[in-house]
């Protein structure tokens, strides 16, 4: 049963106390079941293929060499760090050859040592994420390995240069990417059901990275199949590409809020300024919303900051899912979010704000025996009606937000006053 947070207050304890110690328990029940199911399936596959596969020293040597290259790649990029949240790397360059050249059990085992190294040497994160990543990559690699060994059979055909085995290898690499992405996308969508599938599947950039990983993996597999010593020549280009990729991701991470993935205040202000300059030049309308979560402090005080962070993430995902691709949304600090709506007039701004208020009011986050629901208050300001630059619009929207809170919260307000007609020739004051 859903209980609004401002009417349901209970002491911390029970599942919340356990969730602080075991973060997985603080997630949605459906997500916990899904993650555990994937890990169990991965362990079962490891057991099955370990029993049915023969241990051969050449296979073990190849596996060790590939993992050593992956470790060198991680260590060579360790000083750059890794951005928080979902990040990309090029470690598939070492996982894919293990899937194509070795029995399926090696594809299942390959992610484990490298994920441990990432956890210990690069960035420590909650353990269940590393475990799930290992399981998802392992199952994807296993599927690719089983298909390749079934269709090709003779692995020496891959290094002979024949077209069919190479095409099959490319197809298996595509299968690896599709399965891995699908497993992670289901987890991401289960964690935030209000998010759009296209946000957790592919976009143009991620698709390009997948193609690069696919090509690298197949090339390294062929190189490794020719002569294991040739991995020494394959390693430097992969390290260089990995460093370039991480550098680009770190630059992007500097613009985003680590908890919500939205633009941080500084990045949002830069983009908002650009949109306002464009709107002035073209004479188009533009609206600004300040969204504040009502009584958010009670969430943290009652259920803890871990649950509070989940509420923030849920609200951010809901806001993003209800906006257009070119709307500019960011986290302004604490429980406040800011939204810039290009080409939106007062009617459109009210409609968008009401949609956000309605959708967020129906959002629920599990905690203890309750489902936490929150409401929002929204202050709306429209360019030329309530201000002519970003500072004026922010000030006007903030005053409107203050009015919404004074009137009882869970509502939308516009400023009580508008810019005098002398400052906006040909326009009339609109009632708030």
Describe the model.
By secondary structure, the chain is an alpha/beta fold. It contains 17 helices and eight strands. It has helices spanning 15-21, 29-52, 57-76, 92-101, 104-109, 111-122, 127-151, 156-159, 163-191, 197-200, 204-226, 231-253, 265-282, 296-303, 305-321, 346-362, 390-406; strands spanning 2-4, 286-293, 328-333, 336-342, 365-367, 370-373, 376-382, 412-413. The protein has a five-stranded mixed sheet, sandwiched between helices. The protein has a three-stranded mixed sheet with strand order 1-6-5. Helix 3 (57-76) runs parallel beside helix 6 (111-122) and helix 6 (111-122) packs antiparallel against helix 7. The longest helix has 29 residues, at 163-191. It is elongated and about 80 Å long. The relative contact order is 0.11. The model is unreliable at 1-19 and 420-432 (pLDDT under 50).
